[in-house]
Amino acid sequence: MSYAGDLSPRQAWAKIEAGATLVDVRTAAEWEQIGIPVTASATATRRDPLFIQWSLAGGASNPQFLEQLRQQVPAADAELVFLCRSGVRSVAAANAATAAGFTAYNVLEGFEGKPDQSGARTVNGWKNSGLPTNRGQH
Fold it and tell me: How far is CA 15 from CA 22, 60, 77, 114, 117, in A?
């Protein structure tokens, strides 16, 4: 592992409350159809999550990922928490961000978490941990 570490959704929330920025790397379709995490509040340390696709529609890699990240996070010392559906793409994004000089963490269970026996994603993850979301609001 070259990035700073793996976090459960609750640990990620604590890191965000302490000032880290959440970066959702799922696709635009996932944001629209499944929902998005919400982190901004009256608390000055929390800000809106960033939405930068790691993969584009059809699964192609986003060649602009690091450029888009640098545009939205100009401070190289910023702590970033990466989130995808299940915690796989966010590992790749965290590794890329670390190589680019950022301090990056991965949310292990992702936004949706693991599928249950019937295939529904109800087991764990950001949305199943009771953390704030907006369904299809991006």
Answer: 9, 30, 15, 22, 31
User: Strand, coil or helix: what is 50?
Assistant: strand
The three-class DSSP label of residue 104 is strand
- Reported as a single tens digit per residue, the pLDDT across 43-81 is 555 678 999 999 997 889 999 999 999 999 988 788 999
Residue 65: the pLDDT is 98
Say whether 59 sits in a helix, a strand or coil.
helix
Between 25 and 130, the higher pLDDT residue = 25
Q: What SS3 state is found at 118?
A: coil
Query: Are 95 and 80 in contact, with CB atoms under 8 Å apart?
Result: no
Please measure the distance between the N-terminal and C-terminal CA atoms of the chain and give it in whole angstroms: 31
51 and 24 in contact (C-beta within 8 Å)? yes
pTM above 0.70, yes or no: yes
Could you give the residue ranges of the DSSP H alpha helices within the chain? Answer: 9-17, 28-34, 65-72, 89-99
Q: For residue 115, give the 3-state DSSP assignment.
A: coil
